[in-house]
């Protein structure tokens, strides 16, 4: 039987505060225009759109002590954390519509706290072209959207590592990264030392997406809260041009669909981020439409009826 989903709550976070390009702030509306809510309703899921959160404007300033817009990034993530935690407490499945990937700090901190309170196991699947494990001392840009995984694991400023009141929000063994193909020079050593579980594109090329996902999903069962953090630049830019940081050599359409379908088969999805969609770089909302298609598969859409 397919997973029976609780009501889905869409939460817009229209900001590019942590990014190096402007435009991800338009991502939530692009997903709405592409029909995300209606697509989920057609799957028999109750959907409520909470509209957009509010936060500080992007001042577009250079880094200070290795971070760009730390005060503003913190404010946005507090708003996200509060909103996601409220939806989880109400028994809903929160879907964060970003916005840049720094916002995952707020959403995953909220999910981690929720799971600790209820004694549930948390696993985060992080779909991305980038490892996002930079710190102020190794970042080439100071953009916080390149740092959320590090901050979640306790590497970073207290404003972000202790967003939920304690640090770390999660340990590296709780997160599995898929599709990685861009890791900054200083980041490589930190990723290795932290023991981060990464399925990079070479690994996917060598063994295929099916075996990769079987390994990434190992140990996930009915007692698991599965959080999917989906950065649209995970996809190859040939099929998904609407992102600010395109990295060639990503998964194709069918590989991405298979990954989403295999997650759906586990019936453990508890929360979702959709981030880094940048309509300023898109072509007639093509990337948003593709993203909605993939989210439908994540929520159980398949070609045939499967047990």
UniProtKB/TrEMBL annotation:
Cofactor(s) for this UniProt protein: Mn(2+)
Substrates-to-products reaction catalysed: L-arginine + H2O = urea + L-ornithine
Cofactor binding annotation: Binds 2 manganese ions per subunit.
One Gene Ontology term, aspect cellular component: cytoplasm
Binding-site list for Mn(2+): 101, 128, 130, 132, 231, 233
Keywords: Arginine metabolism, Hydrolase, Manganese, Metal-binding
Cleaved signal peptide residues: none
Broad enzyme group: hydrolase
Protein name: Arginase
Species name: Dokdonella koreensis DS-123
